[in-house]
Amino acid sequence: MRRLTFFLLTAMLLLSIVPGLAQAQQIHVVQSGETLYSIATRYNTTIDQIAAANGLSQPYVIHRGNQLTIPAQGGAPAPAEAAPAPQPAATYATYTVQRGDSLSIIAAQFNTSYITLMQLNGIADPNFLAVGQVLQVPAPAGAPAPTTSSPAVPAEPVTTGVYTVQRGDSLSTIAAQFGINYFELAQLNGIGNLDVLRVGQVLQVPGAPPPAPTVPEAPQAPDASVPVSTANTGGFELGGQALSFAHPNHMRNARMTWVKRQVKWHGNEHAGNFQHLIDSAHSNGFKVLLSVIGEKTQIAGNPPAFYQSFANFLAGLASGGADAIEVWNEMNIDREWPPGQISGANYTQMLSTAYRAIKSANPATMVVSGAPAPTGFFQGCGPNGADDDCYLREMAAAGAANYMDCVGVHYNAGIVPPNATSGAPVGSSGHYSWYLPRMMQLYRSFFPGKPLCFTELGYLTGEGIGALPGGFAWASHITLRNQADWLAGAVHLTRGSGYVRMMIVWNVDATYWGSDPQSGYAIVRPGGGCPACDTLRAAMGG
Q1: Is the terminal CB of the chain with fewer CB neighbours within 10 Å at N or C?
Q2: pTM exceeds cut of 0.70
Q3: Which residues is 497 bridged to in the sheet?
Q4: Can you point out the beta strands (E) in 198-286?
Q5: pLDDT at res. 33
Q6: Which helix (H) or strand (E) holds 502?
């Protein structure tokens, strides 16, 4: 879980930041569609430095026409980054952005990464694409370089209408009605503050979208032995991981409809031993996600036999009414999986066995793949430990998409606002795991046909509790207000993406404060208050 995740991330850090050289300050007037990130990139500075220079507080909000003081290290605007010069053997084509596209989806079509597309096209913010925008993309191997700049895909005529904001509307709910994400809707209307709409406000919206094209899932042969899933994987829902499940009223106030409970199977318990977790959730009006792991030592001796025994146990939980089951947890590190056997292919064998057993027992139970620990510690993939990016690639190559309803993701190292894609105040600030949008894009790129389920998403703060232990010093600047606002921002971002099915807040009610400061993540604070419950309720529409 997050304990080793943070150890791995902390091992990467350089905790000093070199101050910029003093230069003359200047004023920038915010234009429609600009973000703090795009402005910071333009002036070769950071979001936090601009915020500090202008007295901005979290969450950072700017509007068209605002005058911002650019801090000393910014100086003159940096010229737009040129796309990297293509290698002599490389050829490129063009692609016109269609409604519903994202950089990760486009990257998957052209067998590349969304980061490569950003570099190739000088894109600063991966969350903003415009319908009709023409991108340079890698051409298929052996294809001749294009001789014109005509798009490889004909541009879709963009028709627009208007929509009048009603009471209870949010950008994400309106965007969903018109088949786009809420970033596109904000860009279309020059909206700077994504959380503020007025009843009666008239928005420009796309015309009726064309029928969605049928996209083949994955180049895998159909497996008639895989049971058909009837799990409900549509929509977006919010939940919380409860250690004691002592605060259901706080959870309801936050508009949570799911509770996550952890199960450790030692190899001899019957599924009925955990029936009370399912029954207590349902009796309180919640759906239940059971995150289940076993003993890694039992895997090592005879993996196929263990996979089947473990799958039989999961089938018993599904029969007992579990609404969703997460199959294992952070299986890319040796804390959770036997050293020498760590690989995405091995995990996919377990997942496929579990999926068949769960669906045979209860087709309505949603199967969530285990969430790898997000880390760059291992610098690649090996049998004793693996970074999550290459581990996901191994899972995808082994056909994991055929054995899940949702892709499990963990994000609990957030130290910048949820829409930031750079500027983390740590030495390893370039790594994607510090940034929620980049995590979403990365995981989506490996499984473009599957929704994401954030089975842990949290922000750590020691405010009101005490000093953070040394291994968690990277979060020492985060306040309780940050935690509340950033969790709400994470809801806006994930809900508005159109491809995140579930967000589970880590955590609701932990009280342990020590080497693993779990209570610093808890939204119910010492004394019983819950500031984040109010912001989450507002983010979910009140």
Answers
A1: C
A2: no
A3: none
A4: 202-206, 237-241, 258-264
A5: 54
A6: strand 500-505
Q: Are 36 and 51 in contact (CB under 8 A)?
A: yes
User: Could you give the CA distance from residue 68 to residue 503 in angstroms, rounded to a whole number?
Assistant: 34
Per CATH, which fold does 160-206 belong to? Membrane-bound Lytic Murein Transglycosylase D; Chain A (3.10.350)
**DSSP code for 406:** B
Q: Inform me whether the pLDDT recorded for 126 exceeds 90.
A: no
Which of 158-172, 212-226, 411-425 has the least mean pLDDT?
A: 212-226
Answer positive or negative: Cα dihedral of 518, 523, 524, 529.
positive
AA letter at 274: F
Distances (CA, A) of 240 to 261, 262, 439: 9, 12, 20
Cβ atoms of 99 and 209 within 8 Å: the answer is yes
Please answer whether residues 494 and 440 qualify as being in contact, where contact means their C-beta atoms are separated by less than 8 angstroms.
Answer: yes
> What's the number of CA atoms in the CB half-sphere (13 Å) around residue 9?
30
How do the domains of the chain map onto residue ranges? 92-138, 160-206, 237-456
CATH of domain 92-138: 3.10.350.10
The reply to whether domains 92-138 and 160-206 share a CATH topology is yes
Alpha carbon distance 344, 442 (integer Å): 16
Q: Distance between CA 10 and CA 1 in Å, rounded?
A: 15
Taking alpha carbons only, the member of 331, 238, 298, 294 closest to residue 1 is 331
Cα separation, 404 vs 351, whole angstroms: 8
pLDDT 10s digits, 300-337: 989 999 999 999 999 999 999 999 999 999 999 999 99
Residue 86 is predicted with a pLDDT of 40
Query: According to CATH, what is the number of the domain 237-456?
Result: 3.20.20.80
H helix runs in 11-100, sequence order: 36-42, 47-54
Within 8 A by CB and 6+ apart from 296, the residues are: 336, 337, 338
Identity of residue 192:
G
